[in-house]
Specification:
The protein is an alpha/beta fold and 227 residues long. Helix content is 43%, strand content 17%. It is globular, with a radius of gyration of 17 Å. The structure holds pyridoxal-5'-phosphate. The site of pyridoxal-5'-phosphate has 14 residues, from strand 8 and helix 9.
Length: 227
């Protein structure tokens, strides 16, 4: 399993490199986050030992289980919904939360981060594709958030995150392009740097890279059929 996983990791990295080449980007500007929600802590550890530093989980409880079972060298990302009552316990385990979807959550993170004496890096999730079932801020909700951010000194918003509709990668392109334009617009409007764009999963990460993704969140392409 370990060897197969290493091969998969190399393949995914190769596809990332190709997408970077097509879009004249340096491969170092795209971070691969291995999404371990489908696999055990042992398999996640194997992926990490194959040379992948960044791992992501979508459920806080799962992160609580896996993080202590893996080496401290893992950089953990929370990519799924976070309830406010789980903030305090989750913060010490994660390097970045991708999925901030409400002002109340942002405020809860600000309070907990202050109590824990740290500055918490986060991304704001945006429901660009306007699907009802999706979490995230609407495009219209973003501009006024700028004022709030200056009142939350223990939260550092580093950029935006989105998920495209799961039909086909070329349809995802317009969603990703729109997130990039929003990021550019909010950088100016809020007057703060927003370097990160977390977008792209197994089915659409190459398109996401062509549209400017700085983080791709990939699970199935790493694990499907081998674990
Ligand atoms: C599961 C998940 C992923 C990874 O999806 P794959 O299609 O398996 O690569 C990425 N982002 C989020 C938010 C997820 O929940």
């Amino acid at each position: 399993m370990h060897a197969a996983l290493k091969t998969r990791l190399d393949e995914v990295r190769g596809r990332i490199a190709e997408a970077c080449r097509r879009s004249s980007r340096e491969q170092s500007t795209v971070r691969l986050i291995g999404v371990t929600k489908y696999v055990t802590a042992e398999v996640a550890a194997s992926l990490h030992l194959s040379g992948l530093a960044d791992l992501g989980e979508s459920r806080p409880q799962e992160l609580w289980q896996k993080a202590p079972a893996l080496p401290d060298s893992v950089r953990w990302h929370l990519i799924g919904q976070l309830q406010r009552n789980k903030v305090e316990r989750t913060l010490p385990l994660v390097n970045l939360i991708h999925s901030i979807d409400s002002l109340r959550l942002l405020e809860a993170i600000g309070t907990a981060a202050k109590a824990q004496n740290r500055i918490m890096p986060v991304l704001l999730e945006v429901n660009v594709s306007r699907e009802e079932a999706k979490h995230g801020f609407t495009v219209e909700e973003l501009p006024p958030l700028g004022q709030m951010l200056s009142r939350l000194p223990n939260v550092e918003v580093q950029g935006l995150m989105t998920m495209a509709a799961l039909d086909n990668p070329e349809n995802a392109r317009s969603t990703f392009a729109e997130l990039r334009k929003l990021r550019d617009a909010m950088t100016t409007q809020w007057g703060r740097p927003l370097p990160e764009l977390s977008m792209g999963m197994t089915n659409d990460f190459e398109v996401a890279i062509e549209e400017g993704a700085t983080m791709v969140r990939i699970g199935s392409a790493l694990f499907e059929g081998i674990v």
